[in-house]
Write a structure and sequence with these properties.
The complex is a heterodimer of chains A (232) and B (260). With 232 residues, chain A is of the alpha/beta class. In chain A, 51% of the residues lie in helices and 11% in strands. Chain A has a 5-stranded parallel beta sheet with strand order 2-3-1-4-5, sandwiched between helices. The chains are: A alpha/beta (232), B alpha/beta (260).
């Protein structure tokens, strides 16, 4: 088994990832983090889960026809990830940039296992991944996430709500059941992979303050350096 | 001879669990937890071998013969899933594949066919003839330097076939056949490995490496090695003899009931 995911990488850049269920607010937080890091003069690259052009057609076909099984769902996402890792994530890391990933391998570990895929198999599947310098997990109670999503959108998406599992014909109820189990899986991941837990119930600004404090410990930030007593 | 196993030998390899031993009909590795394998009545027979070795011709003939004998036959082939075929074709033509995504696209295609074609057919009692199986994927990826242990874990969800026939050929014979039939293509020549611009040299080097990879898997996966340099009907005879022996040992054929 490859051990890239458990060993620190040796690239000059930094890889920060955000994790959490839908409605946890992680994308909002990632956007604010990107703004701040750019303003600090860092070169930032953002990449999103399941966004490569390569597998877009297959994912779309599969999703439209609800034809994806837990295994093909898992493998398609791994394909997308491999494509982005090699074309979008590693090159900026080599160039010394900061890569911000909206969801990472932990999403697969949580979701695919909830769908019934073997826990160890999916970990070994992703063992070619680069270990992040920091993985922020936005933990949110299921009710808060449901309320946020319902306030913003008309309809929950089929796979997002875990409708493929056939646990409930009501999208909201299915979402609760499915994402509730995903939350349990994330809780296992916190210790296994050392995820940094952020309480995602707080206000956007409070959360962002916490996020920036944690990130500041890992990248040179001018404001932090001011407290240093080194003369110019 | 570049390949370690001598193609002039008749059939070798283990019995791949014909007597209920070994992994035949079971997952190789961790499998698919939500699809536990039971003793399904169907049989899975894989025909393996490199490009242009004559797999599809042999499968055609085998199918005819099996159906005449009264067996229901289902065929499955690499990259033939409706889910993945368009994507794989597109990726191949646009040259955007790197070795990892290559492997994973094929694995997705295989998972789709496994769940939607192979397992249902085995449950329903068909003989499934697979044109290539995971071994082609393992060989191609192995030649491209993908971690072998990672590959074996990845394909841990594959079912071990009841029989694996490996059509073995030397590269010289192969070159003659491929040139006579249709010419050398980009992927079959391993041009993505960028070992040179000359397609002939690249084909020879790449296929030699592939043949070596296949041979190195013969014991691990219990290949029955068939000398594919011989005429079509001689190869077919050997396949039929082996398939007949296997099927007789594992079930009663439908023939007596039909002729009664």
């Amino acid at each position: 088994m490859l051990n890239n995911l458990t060993q620190p990488h040796e690239y000059p850049g930094k890889l920060f990832v955000v994790e959490g269920i839908d409605g946890s607010g992680k994308t909002t937080q990632l956007g604010l983090l990107a703004k701040w890091l750019s303003a600090e003069g860092h070169r930032v690259f953002v990449t999103e889960w399941n966004s490569s052009a390569l597998v877009k057609a297959a994912t779309k076909t599969g999703k439209k026809k609800n034809a994806l099984t837990p295994m093909t769902f898992s493998l398609l996402h791994a394909t997308d990830f491999a494509d982005r890792l090699l074309y979008k994530i590693i090159p900026p890391l080599k160039a010394g940039m900061i890569v911000l990933a909206d969801r990472y391998t932990y999403t697969a570990f949580a979701r695919d296992v909830t769908r019934g895929v073997d826990r160890q198999w999916v970990r070994e599947l992703y063992s070619f991944a680069v270990r992040p310098d920091l993985a922020l997990y936005f933990r949110v109670p299921i009710d808060v996430s449901v309320d946020r999503l319902l306030a913003r959108r008309i309809k929950l998406k089929f796979y997002e709500a875990g409708m493929d599992m056939g646990w409930s014909s009501s999208p909201v109820e299915s979402f609760r059941l499915f994402q509730g189990k995903v939350l349990d899986e994330y809780d296992h991941l916190v210790n296994e992979f050392g995820l940094e837990v952020i309480d995602a119930r707080g206000s956007i600004t409070d959360q962002q303050r916490v996020v920036r404090n944690v990130v500041a410990q890992r990248v040179p930030i001018t404001r932090v350096e001011i407290t240093d007593d080194e003369p110019v | 001879m570049t390949s370690p196993s001598d193609p002039s030998e008749p059939v070798t390899g283990g019995d791949a669990g014909a007597n209920g031993e070994g992994p035949a009909g079971r997952y190789y590795g961790r499998g698919v937890p939500y699809l536990p394998m039971q003793d399904y009545p169907g049989k899975l027979i894989a025909i393996e071998g490199t490009d242009g070795v004559g797999r599809s011709t042999q499968i055609q003939l085998l199918r005819e013969w099996l159906e005449v004998k009264g067996y229901g036959v289902v065929e499955t082939g690499w990259t033939r899933s409706p889910l993945m075929q368009p994507t794989i074709e597109l990726a191949k033509s646009s040259n955007t594949l790197n070795k990892l995504t290559f492997v994973l696209l094929y694995a997705t295609d295989f998972a789709d066919r496994l769940e939607k074609e192979i397992i249902p057919a085995l449950k329903a009692g068909f003989v499934v003839l697979s044109d290539r199986y995971i071994f082609s994927a393992l060989a191609r990826a192995g030649v491209r330097g993908v971690d072998r242990q990672w590959l074996r874990n990845l394909y841990g969800f594959a079912i071990a076939p009841h029989l694996v026939f490996y059509l073995n050929v030397d590269v010289k014979t192969l070159i003659g056949r491929v040139l006579a039939a249709r010419g050398m293509d980009f992927w079959e020549s391993g041009m993505d490995l960028k070992s040179g611009d000359d397609i002939y040299d690249s084909f020879r080097t790449y296929q030699q490496k592939l043949l070596r990879e296949y041979s190195s898997m013969a014991d691990e996966f219990r290949f029955r090695v068939v000398d594919a340099r011989r005429p079509i009907d001689r190869i077919q005879d050997e396949l039929r003899k082996n398939v007949a022996a296997f099927l007789e040992s594992s079930e009663k054929p439908a023939e007596p009931a039909l002729t009664r």
